[in-house]
Amino acid sequence: ETGVTQTPRHLVMGMTNKKSLKCEQHLGHNAMYWYKQSAKKPLELMFVYSLEERVENNSVPSRFSPECPNSSHLFLHLHTLQPEDSALYLCASSQVVGSQPQHFGDGTRLSIL
Amino acid sequence: DQQVKQNSPSLSVQEGRISILNCDYTNSMFDYFLWYKKYPAEGPTFLISISSIKDKNEDGRFTVFLNKSAKHLSLHIVPSQPGDSAVYFCAAIRNGGGSNYKLTFGKGTLLTVNP
Q1: Cα B84 to the chain's mean position, in Å?
Q2: What is the pLDDT of residue A8?
Q3: pLDDT in tens, A56-79
Q4: Which of A101, B31, B40, B92 could disulfide-link B52, Cβ–Cβ 3.0 to 4.6 Å?
Q5: 61-100 of B, contacting A, C-beta below 8 A
């Protein structure tokens, strides 16, 4: 298996639930990213990790909590989300932070009830 | 304030003709530009890029042109094929280390190539 894999592809959750999004890359990359794409808005960078260390937290609310246990895996833990958090969440990786291009997963479509 | 703008939300082209997708940027510090293509239910995939030291980069049917003075770039697809129907995102980055690694994306243009 190659590329960037995200699970689940779709997630519906209530505002009081706790869930996690998972991303796995098989490209040997050292940098991983979380993006959010809301309707009619550009992709917004949320978090950047370089070799399991968080490099960037782009003013993201604390109800989103990333975790990078190793350079191949990235999680986004969700708790007490709001309806406006409904969006497509995309994971990406690149060789090192800042190198291009970034390789994207297919995303998790998140709906908050 | 959007730093990367794709002012046409959609474009429709006949198969075999040229598709021209446009992108404008406001940040003169951007020095590397990329085009991504996205099919429904899939993530964006990298298509072609251009460095600010160049004004043209070609890869098969895809050519990207950069006009730095106008802060404008365009993606030309010729000849267009029905399989090119997708959303195309323009993205820009300011390389240079430190925190200058953020890809800034446009909102995308939906290209439809009609058979």
Answers
A1: 13
A2: 97
A3: 777 899 999 999 999 999 999 999
A4: B31
A5: 89, 93, 95, 97, 99-100
Q: Which two tokens stand for residue B88?
A: 């195309």
In contact, A112 and A48? CB cutoff 8 Å: no
Q: Using an 8 Å Cβ cutoff, are B113 and B82 in contact? A: yes
Residue B87 CA to residue A84 CA, distance in Å, equals 23
pLDDT at A2 over 80: no
pLDDT at res. B94: 85
What confidence score (pLDDT) does residue A17 get? 87
Distance CA A21, CA A75 (A): 5
Q: For B101, which of A41, A97, A104 is closest by C-beta distance?
A: A97
Cβ-defined contact of A104 to B44 (cutoff 8 Å):
yes
Residue B84 φ/ψ, nearest 5 degrees = -80, -10
Beta strands in B52-114 (DSSP E): 56-59, 62-67, 72-77, 86-93, 104-105, 109-114
Return the residue of B nearest to A97 by Cα: B101
